[in-house]
Design a protein that fits this description.
The radius of gyration is 18 Å and the shape is globular. The chain is of the alpha/beta class and 239 residues long. Strands 6-7-8-3-9-10 form a 6-stranded mixed beta sheet. Strands 2-1-4-5 form a 4-stranded antiparallel beta sheet, covered by helices on one side. The two termini are 34 Å apart. Helix 4 packs across helix 5. It has 7 helices and 10 strands.
Length: 239
């Protein structure tokens, strides 16, 4: 099967990807023969019904899981061949994660939550604070830096999570239902912010969503059904 392609300069190249889980002696295939290219600078929406394998595919792209078959090359690095420790180092250096339920530490301020990924770097404490402050300013929350998650709305918490995801200047942002727990107004703010990171800052984004309105903010979308790609399209953007 030919790979679904979204551009010529590929950041992500996936070939014959398969993932099977085992429950006792039973094999449960989740992905089968997935082939996909994602160009650098794409905002890519991955859609499909519940159980279609889209979150599994996202986890494989983000290095949170390893495939049962096939290959994943990101930025020239074949990540499916990395050891567990090497994969963890690659993830920390190259991928920012945004999840549906924010995953912020409730006892830390917004500033400290954004700083967390920087603790794995060699940056000084003052440089970490500076970078986190810049990230919070970009997401429009500079005035909320000292607030803890419980003092923020859901949309504000997700914007903090996005600031945390890109504070290390990752190659790739992976977003799993980033608006799934938000009302429509807050969702539009978050999606507009992701568009800004894509268009103004050149971030490649892969986003899982079940919401067609969310997918319309992407540059490309692809559909998964029962573990197989069944269609891809460029999303028409307003002038």
């Amino acid at each position: 099967m030919n790979a679904v392609q979204t551009g010529s300069a590929n950041l992500i190249e996936i070939r014959d990807l398969g993932k099977t889980y085992r429950r006792g002696k039973q094999a449960i295939p989740v992905l089968q023969g997935v082939n996909l290219d994602v160009a650098a600078g794409d905002f890519f929406a991955l859609m499909g019904p519940s159980g279609s394998g889209k979150t599994t595919l996202l986890n494989l792209i983000g290095g949170l899981d390893t495939p049962s078959a096939g290959s994943i090359v990101i930025g020239g690095q074949r990540i499916d061949k990395l050891s567990g420790a090497a994969l963890a180092r690659w993830r920390a250096a190259h991928v920012g994660f945004v999840f549906q339920f924010y995953n912020l530490l409730p006892m830390l301020s917004a500033q400290k939550n954004v700083e967390l990924p920087l603790l794995l770097t060699k940056l000084s404490a003052s440089e970490r604070r500076k970078r986190a402050a810049i990230a919070l300013q970009l997401v429009g929350l500079a005035d909320r830096a000292s607030h803890k998650p419980g003092e923020l709305s859901g949309g504000q918490q997700q914007r903090v999570a996005i600031a945390r995801a890109f504070v290390t200047d990752p190659t790739l942002l992976v977003c799993d239902e980033p608006t799934g727990d938000l009302d429509r107004a807050a969702a539009e703010e978050v999606l507009g912010l992701l568009q800004q990171l894509n268009r103004a800052h050149g971030k490649t984004i892969v986003m899982v969503t079940h919401d067609p309105r969310a997918a319309e903010h992407a540059t490309h979308m692809v559909h998964l059904d029962k573990g197989e790609l069944v269609g891809a399209a460029r999303v028409a953007q307003p002038a």
